[in-house]
Amino acid sequence: DSDLSMRTLSTPSPALIFPPNSPGFQNGRGSSTSSSSITGETVAMVHSPPPTRLTHPLIRLASRQQKEQASIDRLPDHSMLQIFSFLPTNQLCRCARVCRRWYNLAWDPRLWRTIRLTGDTVNVDRALRVLTRRLCQDTPNVCLMLETVIVSGCRRLTDRGLYTIAQCCPELRRLEVSGCYNISNEAVFDVVSLCPNLEHLDVSGCSKVTCISLTREASIKLSPLHGKQISIRYLDMTDCFVLEDEGLHTIAAHCTQLTHLYLRRCVRITDEGLRYLMIYCASIKELSVSDCRFVSDFGLREIAKLESRLRYLSIAHCGRVTDVGVRYIAKYCGKLRYLNARGCEGITDHGVEYLAKNCTKLKSLDIGKCPLLSDAGLEFLALNCFNLKRLSLKSCESITGQGLQIVAANCFDLQMLNVQDCEVSVEALRFVKRHCKRCIIEHTNPAFF
């Protein structure tokens, strides 16, 4: 990484990011935007543009023959750009080495709206530094086109890499650093403070992240309205085990525009944290507190304050939730479309009855591992929730084939049914298949196929 290797030439030179001796490198596939799936150690190199002519006569002859056969060179620039837009980041860098025309096309700013890096051994900090330097050549120190950075499972990503993103990418709208457990609060604060357009943030699995907030300097500068300056709408903090109620309070106060929040396995969150959340974030549409064992019926009473705005709720394995909490949700959140209550063993047929009669637009319901549910609860569902498409009853020991037949006879749009570890007959499964022809049945009955 010497200054000599990073020098700016008269014609900008391409930054190459590729893992040497990696078998998956030749067959990398990307999304509709430029992305990268890299395995192995990432090496950053800078090369000058390919020469326009070859001097040796034999090489020149071979080059003419190849040129005559390469019909792709006849395509106009806009068509080439369209093709390049489907290439991952590492392959796009390789294309820049083919010839001068491809070099200029490969570094067209329109192809660099997204950078995607994955892999445990990727030197992400260095890769981000090289790429951002190259993309900043036309607009010094600023990448105006870069909107999405996805760095998933890169354990070598550190705060230094996030500082690079924060300093160079003011137009960033989406950042995913899931599984990067070496980053800390300070680097995340810098990103949200220096990227005012950031709307999508995924820090799932980042165990050191305990809060989302502006830096002190940004807070002072934007005071007294700094609480409304973070424009994040989507926040995933799954497996952020250290997150506590105080941290959730800070998140809610700074991210008032949240519409999607996922707190799966944030085991220290309690009902008090949810109370803070409802005070500031009244626009939440999707919320997951699954495996938050301290969340109880009182927490669901707070969540119910979202009323008709709430469409998705996951309270899976919240063992303190009973019919009382379900009644709160059913009474006030009548437009609920998705509910995951798997493992909430305190829910009975009475809770399902109240849910079915008040949330008639339910499309997906998971009430698996609720041993107190029986065919009576399924009958309430079948007679009220005609739009039901997905239903999971896994390990509901009291469910029988009679309850399944009632569901199948009324919910014709059913597309997925999970009855694994349930005592249901082959005849009942065949009845479901006859009435719900598009339904995929997950079961453990070897006689049914």
Automatic annotation (TrEMBL):
Biased composition (Polar residues): 1-13
Domain F-box: 69-115
Domain of life the protein comes from: Eukaryota
Alphabetical keyword list: Cell cycle, Cell division, Cytoplasm, Cytoskeleton, Leucine-rich repeat, Mitosis, Repeat, Ubl conjugation pathway
Key word Chaperone present: no
Matches recorded under InterPro entries: F-box-like_dom_sf, F-box_dom, FBXL15_LRR, Leu-rich_rpt_Cys-con_subtyp, LRR_dom_sf
Region named Disordered: 1-37
Pathway this chain belongs to: Protein modification; protein ubiquitination
Subcellular location: Cytoplasm, Cytoskeleton, Microtubule organizing center, Centrosome
Gene3D superfamilies assigned to the protein according to its UniProt record, in alphabetical order: 1.20.1280.50, Ribonuclease Inhibitor
One term under GO cellular component: SCF ubiquitin ligase complex
GO term, biological process aspect, one: SCF-dependent proteasomal ubiquitin-dependent protein catabolic process
UniProt key word Coiled coil: no
Function: Substrate recognition component of a SCF (SKP1-CUL1-F-box protein) E3 ubiquitin-protein ligase complex. During mitosis, it mediates the ubiquitination and subsequent proteasomal degradation of AURKA, causing mitotic arrest. It also regulates mitochondrial function by mediating the ubiquitination and proteasomal degradation of the apoptosis inhibitor BIRC5.
Record note on quaternary structure: Part of the SCF (SKP1-CUL1-F-box) E3 ubiquitin-protein ligase complex SCF(FBXL7) composed of CUL1, SKP1, RBX1 and FBXL7. Interacts with AURKA; interaction takes place during mitosis but not in interphase. Interacts with BIRC5; this interaction allows BIRC5 to be polyubiquitinated by the SCF(FBXL7) E3 ubiquitin-protein ligase complex.
Protein family (similarity comment): Belongs to the FBXL7 family.
Name under which the protein is recorded: F-box/LRR-repeat protein 7
Organism, as annotated: Erithacus rubecula
